[in-house]
Amino acid sequence: MECHVVLSWGNMEVLTLLEIISALWAMYSVVTWWLERGRLSQLTDKTVLITGCDTGFGNLLAKRLDQLGLRVFAGCLTEAGVAELRQSCSERLQPIRMDVSSSDSVQDAFRVVKEAVGSKGLWGLVNNAGIAGVSGGTMDWATKEDYQACLKVNLLGMIDVTKIFLPLLKKSRGRVVNVSSAAGRMAVQDAGPYTVCKYGVEAFSDCLRRAMRYFGVKVHIIEPGFHRTEITNQEMVLGLLDQIWQRQSPETRTEYGVEFLQASKDYKVSLGRLMQDPGAVVDAMEHALCATHPRSRYVIGWDARLVAIPMSWLPTDLGDLMPKLKEIKFLDCEKC
């Protein structure tokens, strides 16, 4: 009898604790939702620099902010990107040639922006420029040069741009928006160079956010899942996979076999069917720049929210039990 009473009392304590946690979480969610609805006033007084505006997220964001009345400097790698934005946007938007992997190019862009904003400073910097790098197959197909090429743009370029433009951001107590990826939270074994870069983006952004609190500069991380952009173009992705395969040694091609290559292609095609509209990512970028209470981190897309990020919370040994089916099927012990 005593045991039954104690057990019931213990169950009641657990239920009460769960109810309290649920109530607190609900209150937190409602308050957060309410605060995040607020928008900054006088957006027309603010200036934003966006990198990687030739296509994709950067291009869409530049046009969105232009429509909202912000002054935008849109960094483009190509002259074609500059021409397209000049034709499709208002005079408030100024496209400029900018290669984030070249410090000289970044310095040239800095001088243009500094002269334009003067003592007001720069309100927003969106580090969006990036490349997919070598993607497909498996880790040992990528070379050191593949890692260097990806790091030069996706991580070192971001760091260089941020360091150079920080003085202008400090003047306005502005915001830095860094585009990472769900691959920055969960390792993607067939995109080693890209994943390494995005893990670095996460670390750099977290360090920067904490360091810049003293100056009132906020740092926000965008973590998209798989969205429809130029770097996820299926024809380009499959063509690159063929190129990577052809440059492998005969021994490596024998070790993996053409079945593994075909399975890799099938996997890429299946991912292509799951691609989501990039508009949600642009919405998150806009919120990070224009909301009175922006988030520090934005996870975007059902694949990122329901698969990638939850998997990153698993114990390492459990997470490692989820390789792609193609690897289980084709990479057998006889070939190793």
Layout of secondary structure:
Elements: H1 2-36, E1 47-50, H2 56-68, E2 71-76, H3 79-88, E3 93-97, H4 103-117, E4 124-127, H5 144-154, H6 156-172, E5 175-179, H7 192-212, E6 218-224, H8 234-246, H9 250-273, H10 279-290, E7 297-300, H11 302-312, H12 316-319, H13 325-330
Parallel strand pairs: 1-2, 1-4, 2-3, 4-5, 5-6, 6-7
Helix pairs in contact: 2-10, 4-6, 5-7, 8-9
Question: Can you offer a commentary on this structure?
Answer:
- With 336 residues, the chain is α/β, with parallel strands linked by helices.
- The protein has a single domain (41-232, 276-321), classed as 3-Layer(aba) Sandwich (Rossmann fold).
- The chain has helices at 2-36, 56-68, 79-88, 103-117, 144-154, 156-172, 192-212, 234-246, 250-273, 279-290, 302-312, 316-319, 325-330, and strands at 47-50, 71-76, 93-97, 124-127, 175-179, 218-224, 297-300.
- A 7-stranded parallel beta sheet has the order 3-2-1-4-5-6-7, sandwiched between helices.
- The chain starts with a helix and ends in a 6-residue tail after the last helix.
- Residues 324-336 have low confidence and may be disordered.
Key features of this structure:
single chain; 336 residues; alpha/beta; Rossmann fold; seven-stranded parallel sheet; 13 helices; 7 strands; 57% helix; globular; Retinol dehydrogenase 16-like; Sc_DH/Rdtase_CS; transmembrane helix
